[in-house]
């Protein structure tokens, strides 16, 4: 009996000592964690953002023009170890999206309980939202009953989490809660290009602005094609998917149909009627040159102020009969321009557009070619403007341009058009 009591006393004492030791260790760990919040949370979102670009001419990973910011209210992604694409409840997988996740209730508040509707897309409504930091964003709510919407959501978050460029509408957050899926984008104050081209209550876009927009879009696409690794095709370039910011700079939006380049003969046809590459329709192989085709249609929209649904391409084909490869396109100019355009520029851009919609994809220019040609057109314009403004003799301006290379074209228009001439099939 006595032996049992001693054993009990020793056992209890050892247990108490171990308990005290464990409690001390736990308290110490907790204190350390409070002192340095990074401990135990090393998988911060930014650390897992997948870098994607290496070589795009105008590409950048700088987020300065997006609204992603540390001040944004964010909720931790369950210690950043849930991967929504595998199901939000799955644990132990590091998020690869690198995109902040917002709480449903915060978005509900930011959109005044989803009453600030700014538009309706194929997969659900879009709301304007003011976050508690004051920043304005656009919240796209995906329809809960849409299987396609779910797929689009997964694609968009994964893609946009690693794609950043000043000519793309960058994704700045998402919400996956209560069965709802939402995408949060940089807010584009001036809405879609389509609304400016076709809404009679809006001031018509000037010719110069149209060409600037064309170059912005070309740069966004060039980034997707040549800057992103692996490369990305957009699959739905059209004027309603081009958004304009406060200063009328254009950005490519709606990556709902975006995919890394897929070549599958069995995939269903996707895209928007009127912008679809005929070669893609017959072969079912969507390539970068299919985006180039849609971009060509967009260039003709900018020139003619007509939608493909209003017979734009038939109109273009008629005009092409009179066009001689470099000129003769003026008859398709948008009447809202009231003749205010540079004829040479219009012919250049129409020639580029016509090459881009060539039925044979191999005869179409690349987005890089198009960026080069459009930027040369703008450089030429700037050069002419400077020359006119200063009313200086050409020789003097050319001399001064050597010291200031920016506004002076590196290649003449003729050179840039000639570099594309082997693609001509007019
Ligand atoms: N980031 C944004 N900033 C401002 N407005 C936006 C933004 N994103 C979308 N919108 C507006 O919301 C509306 C719906 O956009 P959404 O991208 O959902 O569909 P869509 O491009 O019009 O059509 P579809 O879904 O067929 O491509 C459009 O009018 C668009 O101008």
UniProtKB/TrEMBL annotation:
Keyword 4Fe-4S: no
Occurrences of domain Protein kinase (ranges): 112-378
Transmembrane segment boundaries: 6-29
InterPro entries given in the database record: Kinase-like_dom_sf (IPR011009), Prot_kinase_dom (IPR000719), Ser-Thr/Tyr_kinase_cat_dom (IPR001245), Ser/Thr_kinase_AS (IPR008271)
Region (Disordered): 400-426
PANTHER family xref list: CALCIUM_CALMODULIN-REGULATED RECEPTOR-LIKE KINASE 1 ISOFORM X1, OS01G0750732 PROTEIN
Name of the protein this chain belongs to: Protein kinase domain-containing protein
Organism: Dendrobium nobile (Orchid)
Upper lineage: Eukaryota, Viridiplantae, Streptophyta, Embryophyta, Tracheophyta
